[in-house]
Each structure stands twice: as structure tokens, then as C-alpha cells.
Design a protein that fits this description.
Strand order of the largest sheet: 6-7-8-9-11-10-14
Distance between the termini: 40 Å
Number of strands: 15
Structural class: alpha/beta
Largest sheet: 7 strands, mixed
Shape: globular
Helix content: 25-40%
């Protein structure tokens, strides 16, 4: 007879095999069904499987060879998770802080660089072939200054330039907030029960946006095929990091969003009737990799602010929350098991997954530097080797308790620690 442990492993293996068999059976049925059904070009049946792509760290002066692969995936939306362009310019290295010295962007430079990105042939081809909804938020380099915060003089102008690049409706509440200097934040809601081409809801139809429907409590009925994408601006109102060794101390008074954006987010999440809630910002939320905020920016540097974010996301009536982030020039899949309490005060463990995709044109596996000269000359090849070697060793030597590990392959997933140092984009696939 099997021991209890052996029996559990045997049951898990049988369950896994059954799920994979069921998956392939359903996939074959779906393929046969798709061949038989007749649909018009103007109105099709509601989507059974949808993809939302996202990415970050895209230097407009470097080649992005990922747009073809993204096009083949045919996403309904593409979300910029920060650094759609690099508008600040590298002017050297500051050895006292171990950071690059970068010239801040002016509004004119932002405008010029967004034009370069819009003219990129592969990006234009992606937009023309898939016609996705393109949305997103800013991080530091498309804000216009490395490690940018609330002190940047052109923060309002950079937000407006970014939304003009996205072709955001100038009458939308998201655009009006950016124009007022409040930040680049908002929510986009998709209803996949609607015909193809009509998935994206207006703010009025979605009923989530507090600056449209109000901040009062309201009754809601969850929609099975509705997805809400919350876009947060963690730059425009962020408190500055400390100087020198002061940046090595966590700041419990530091803030990322500003009170106005906090109240908006907390109420918008409570309004959400979506079955999936995706929360996007430019910086990683879960990890704490290095004590210096100037070297490794993340939400852990401001613990009180990060806890407030967790509290808002993990309320009982916020269904299936997922975090998306960028910034770090690599891809990582992370998870935290968060202790929450239900309305009766009983403790519950609720997992929260964060998916970081960063490095569309440069990464730790190619070359982490964004400056073009380092990519154009063979003499910098040792930097390429050092870049990948150092970061690989860091992942295998240092403890990263939030990094997910897979010991059984599924649909071609890599085994072991879930990270990649190569250039990458991310995708959320929802199979209804």
C-alpha cells in the first residue's frame, strides 16, 4: 500500500494528466467548431479565449524585433507598462551613487521621440494587422527623467504627450486628469460577451470610473466575461528617494500615488464588477532585491504605501486580481500568499501573482544598457557577457522567495525558477 504522501503525489499526477487530456480534447473540439461555424466580418460570436499583451523598456533608437511575434499572438489589447520611449539622455556615470547621469527630457524632445516610435515600421505593422486597443501608463524614462518623481518640472507635459501617443480621447476623464497634472491613471474595461470590435466599454457603460459614476457605494452584479485594466501612475506623485545612504533606509512615510489617486483606486476597485482585475504600474510590487532605492526601485521601499495597495486589491469583492509591472529589464513571475480577513474577521490566505515583463529592446540577457552606442560596437561585447552572467548568478545564489518555481512542464513552460533575462513581452491569456 502507498503511504499518505505517495498517495497524494499519485493523485496529483493523475489529476495533472486528466487536466492535460481534457485541455487537448477541448482544444480539438474548439478547432473543429471554429472550422464549421460561419461568421460575418462585422459581427462574430463572443470571444472564448482572449489575449492581452504588454511590455516595457522600449528604446525608440534600438531595434525591437518582438512586434512580429506579438502580431502573431493577435492580442485584443496591448498595454505599455512603462518606458514606451527613452526620452532622457545618458551623459555619463555617477560613481558615488552607482547610477547613470541622464539629461532630463523637455516636452519637445518627448514629442520628437514619440514621433520616432510611431514611425517604426514593425510597430505600425502590428497596429494595422491586429487593430488592438493600445493603452498603458508611464514610468521614469517616458516621464523624461531617470528615477523620476513628483519634483520633475515637466511631469504634466510628459503625461499629456504619452496619452497623445496612445491616441487617448482628449475628452476622456483619463486625459483630463493628465492635463490637470494629476497623473496618468485610469481604468479600461472590456466585455467579451459583446461582438468582436465592440469589447472596449465607454466609462459610462463600464460603471467603474469614480470620476464618472461618483464615489458613492453602489450595488454590482459580477460579469463573467468582463476584464478591468487599472492603470496606475507611480511617478507623477511619488515621494523622492533619499540621497546617498539615506536611500538604503525604507521610508514608511513615502508615497507612490498621492491621496487623490489612492481614493480613486480604492473606490474604482470597489465598483469593479469584472471577473478579472489587472493592475498595471511601472515598478515591481512584490520583490525587495536591494536596499538602495536608487539602484533597485520597487514598492517595498515605501512599505506603508505598498501595504495600502495590497489592502485595496485584496478586498473580498475584487475578483481575480493580477499585478503587471516593468522597469527591471527582465521577465519574472512572482507570487505572494497574503493574509487577509473576511467580513467576519476570519483569517484567509489569498495568493497574489505579479507578472513583470521588461526589456523589449534591451535586457540583462542581451545588454541592460539602453544607450545605442553600447549595442553598435563589438568592443562592448564583454559588457554583454558580464551583463548576463552577473544577473544569472544573482538569480541562482540570492534568495528570492517571491519568485515562482515550476517542477512540472505545462504547455511548454520552462522548469525551475520562472524568470528570463532575454528580451521579452508579456501576455495574459484568458480562456473562458
Amino acid at each position: 500500500p502507498l503511504t499518505a504522501s505517495e498517495q497524494a503525489k499519485d493523485n496529483n499526477k493523475q489529476t495533472s494528466l486528466y487536466i492535460q487530456y481534457l485541455y487537448h480534447l477541448l482544444k480539438q473540439f474548439q478547432n473543429n467548431f471554429n472550422q464549421m461555424k460561419q461568421t460575418s466580418s462585422t459581427e462574430r460570436n463572443p470571444a472564448e479565449r482572449v489575449r492581452i499583451a504588454f511590455g516595457s523598456c522600449n528604446n525608440q533608437h534600438l531595434e525591437n524585433n518582438l512586434w512580429g511575434a506579438i502580431t502573431e499572438r493577435d492580442p485584443v489589447a496591448f498595454v505599455w507598462a512603462g518606458d514606451a520611449i527613452y526620452a532622457d539622455i545618458n551623459e555619463g556615470f555617477d560613481w558615488s551613487t552607482l547610477t547613470t547621469i541622464r539629461s532630463p527630457a523637455t516636452p519637445q524632445r518627448l514629442n520628437d521621440y514619440y514621433k520616432i516610435q510611431k514611425r517604426d515600421a514593425s510597430y505600425r505593422s502590428f497596429l494595422e494587422k491586429t487593430n488592438p486597443t493600445v493603452t498603458g501608463t508611464i514610468d521614469d524614462h517616458d516621464m523624461g527623467i531617470n528615477n523620476g518623481d513628483e519634483t520633475f518640472q515637466y511631469k504634466r507635459e510628459s503625461g499629456v504627450e504619452f496619452l497623445d501617443f496612445l491616441r487617448e480621447d482628449r475628452n476622456s476623464v483619463m486625459y483630463r486628469r493628465a492635463k490637470n497634472g494629476d497623473g496618468v491613471y485610469g481604468v479600461k474595461v472590456f466585455d467579451f460577451d459583446r461582438p468582436e470590435g465592440q469589447y472596449l466599454l465607454s466609462d459610462d457603460d463600464a460603471g467603474i470610473e469614480p470620476d464618472v459614476v461618483g464615489f458613492i457605494e453602489k450595488q454590482k452584479t459580477f460579469k463573467d466575461k468582463r476584464v478591468a485594466i487599472f492603470l496606475l501612475d507611480a511617478r507623477t506623485n511619488r515621494s523622492p528617494w533619499g540621497k546617498g545612504f539615506a536611500s538604503w533606509r525604507r521610508n514608511y512615510d513615502g508615497d507612490f500615488l498621492g491621496e487623490k489617486q489612492w481614493k480613486w483606486l480604492e473606490k474604482a476597485l470597489q465598483h469593479s464588477d469584472a471577473s478579472v482585475n489587472i493592475i498595471v504600474n511601472g515598478m515591481q510590487v512584490h520583490p525587495f532585491r536591494h536596499p538602495s532605492a536608487n539602484l533597485a526601485e520597487n514598492w517595498a521601499q515605501f512599505p506603508s504605501s505598498r501595504q495600502r495597495l495590497y489592502d485595496a486589491i485584496l478586498r473580498e469583492n475584487v475578483r481575480s486580481p493580477v499585478l503587471l509591472s516593468g522597469d527591471v529589464h527582465m521577465a519574472q513571475l512572482m507570487r505572494k500568499n497574503c493574509l487577509v480577513r473576511n467580513k467576519r474577521g476570519a483569517p484567509l490566505i489569498r495568493p497574489l501573482v505579479e507578472f513583470t515583463s521588461s526589456g523589449m529592446t534591451h535586457s540583462w540577457g542581451s545588454l541592460f544598457a539602453s544607450t545605442k552606442k553600447y549595442h553598435d560596437s563589438y568592443k562592448y561585447y564583454p559588457m554583454h557577457v558580464l551583463s548576463k552572467t552577473v544577473m544569472t548568478l544573482i538569480h541562482w545564489i540570492l534568495p528570492m522567495p517571491d519568485l515562482m518555481i515550476t517542477d512540472e512542464p505545462f504547455e511548454g513552460a520552462k522548469l525551475g525558477k520562472q524568470f528570463s533575462l532575454e528580451k521579452n513581452f508579456g501576455e495574459v491569456e484568458i480562456n473562458w
